[in-house]
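Please decode residue identities from the backbone states below.
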């Protein structure tokens, strides 16, 4: 371990059902990262099963974040930017990576990683899964989802989970410090500069309807801004699908 943020815990497990549950069990005063080489019962957004082939990355960071509860969700952008930082540092190929609202990292336009935030009392858990060596089949995903990809086949480089954890933990610590000192504005701008399909047509799927429009970025709270025929829509939560014709 060449680098690690001071005051942050690091736990490596051979196997667990969920790094989210394991991180919650290890929660203390200091932020702590929990990585597992095998994860048997993890879920992603909306309770979807998260596939975890050996060699892929599954980790959760548990922390007691400063600031108001309603601003906790901004850490999804902090985490996505930190993950991109780590991937660029390890591969040396910045052009490969882009960001998809609200919390995915893409590689060559395909889904490489997902991030899941969960609040429990005064705790925030940030779960991160990355397809380092293998990706799920397109058939296992919801129709219209961005096609998955793994880092090995898309970059030609094999990255060990522990190496990614070290880079990610340091990058997240640095970005968290900046978030507290500078506010969200700088990271908001940086996230948009790396966002996939900015200024292009997308589809936002809500619980009862779909809205099509131009992706105009995110606001100061991280909500999606969608330009539609009815005007600018602000969407705090939605599933985003790309208009491949766009």
């Amino acid at each position: 371990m060449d680098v690690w943020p001071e005051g942050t815990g690091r736990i490596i497990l051979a196997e667990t059902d969920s790094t989210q549950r394991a991180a919650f069990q290890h929660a203390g005063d200091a932020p702590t990262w929990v990585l597992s080489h095998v994860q048997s019962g993890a879920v992603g957004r909306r309770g979807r099963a998260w596939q975890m082939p050996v060699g892929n990355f599954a980790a959760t960071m548990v922390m007691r974040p400063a600031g108001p509860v309603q601003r906790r969700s901004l850490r999804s952008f902090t985490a996505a930017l930190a993950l991109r930082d780590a991937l660029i540092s390890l591969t040396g190929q910045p052009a490969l990576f882009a960001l998809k609202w609200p919390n995915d990292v893409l590689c060559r336009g395909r889904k490489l990683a997902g991030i899941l935030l969960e609040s429990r009392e005064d705790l925030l858990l940030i779960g991160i899964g990355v397809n380092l060596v293998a990706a799920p089949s397109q058939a296992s995903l919801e129709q219209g989802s961005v096609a998955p990809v793994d880092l090995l086949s898309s970059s030609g480089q094999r990255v060990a989970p522990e190496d990614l954890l070290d880079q990610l933990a340091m990058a997240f610590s640095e970005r968290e410090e900046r978030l507290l000192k500078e506010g969200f504005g700088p990271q908001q701008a940086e996230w948009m500069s790396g966002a996939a399909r900015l200024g292009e047509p997308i589809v936002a799927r809500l619980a009862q309807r779909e809205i099509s429009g131009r992706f105009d970025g995110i606001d100061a709270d991280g909500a999606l801004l969608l330009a539609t025929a009815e005007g600018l829509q602000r969407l705090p939560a939605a599933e985003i699908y790309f208009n491949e014709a766009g």
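Observation: The chain has five helices and twelve strands.
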